Amino acid sequence: MSTYREERRADQAAARDADREDRRLELEAKLAYKRQLAEDERAEKERKAEQARKDAEAKRRQEQAEARRRQEEKARAKAARMAKLGKVARWLNANPVTVFVGFVMVCSVVPAVISQVVSLAEAGVFVLLAALLAAMLEGTAWALTFMGKAAEDAGRPAAKYRIGTWVTAFLAAAVQYWHWSLALPEHAWVAWVFAGSSLVAIYLWDMKTHGSHGKTRQERAEEKRKRRHLAQRRKDHKEVAAEAARLLSAAPYGSLDEEDAFAAAWQIHYGTQPGMTPALYAKATDARVALGAAFQLADGVRPELVRAGMLAAVYNPLADGLGGPLSALTRTGPVQALPKASEGPTAQAGIGLSAIEKAGAKPGENGGGNASNSASGNTSRGRSEAELEQLLPDAHQAAEELVAEGKQISAAQLASRLQIRREDAVFLRDRVIAERKLRLVG
Q1: C-alpha distances in Å from residue 64, one per residue of 29, 61, 76
Q2: 315 — pLDDT class (breaks 50, 70, 90)
Q3: Rounded to 5 degrees, what angle do the CA atoms 260, 264, 268 make?
């Protein structure tokens, strides 16, 4: 019995313990659930708060962006207005004449129209018809004015438009003069003032559109000089001018200008560029020969003709690059350039580069130093060729000093300055002159 009761009490105690454990677990589960609910509520609140913060930040940024956009639009609108104002200001600064002409035109047209309306109305014309007739007169004048400007800009004849403009303007002026001369016979000047108001605006606009497009004084003077030049050319060179006219008429229109045609005609007649003729070349050749003879007399010896021609070529007025009086005639065109000294009639006379080449030959060759010495009566030199070559730089320096002093490059001067024999100085003089000439030609 005791064992049974003990077991029963033990079972009851175990049941009570199990029931307490179940209640404890249930309580813990409820507590855990409540804690989870509280945690979920707190997390939800934090999420909603974060979302509200983000929404507020986005709204703030959107408002800021909208404010910036409105500010930028205002700035762009202001910049556009300033650009338009600046454009207008620049146009006003660049066109003050147009501004003042427009102002005077308004001050002229408005009184003219009003005066014409009054004139016609007082003559018994219905006011509306008078206004239409006045507008017709002034409008026709300005319509013809602008039509003439458009035709002139397009390159079409504009004379008929200008004539129509002035006829209409004078009709309007006559209407006003007739009215005011009758209305105020004791003040005739008033009639002239109102009549002039119909003409002033047209006159100003005509002066603006046509008076500023004429030629300048320099252009007119240049055209006058050109006409004189062409007239003198036709007078002095009738045959060449006639040939040039035939070339112009034969060539396609616009393919040949007058200057090129005249240059080509001169080439056909004389075989050279404008300004030179065979007779002038022959005269220049004779002058070079005479100049060579003058150098012979000035030198005190009798050098050969080749050396005289070489000295004359140093002062050749026709050589390229020497600035002679005829060098300005050289121009680019359909004709050939001025012949060089070795190509023209001077070469045929033995004067030119061929003479220089002979003068620059070595001693002992044909036309060299020995030939010149033989011609002058000196058959030998005291120095060898190598020694004379060493003295050549000193001879060049002495020659430059002589030129600077305004003296001639002569054998006597070189012999005195270099302390050498006269026949050696003759050789050095020829070499120096030849090399100086070659440098000038080069």
Answers
A1: 51, 5, 18
A2: low
A3: 170
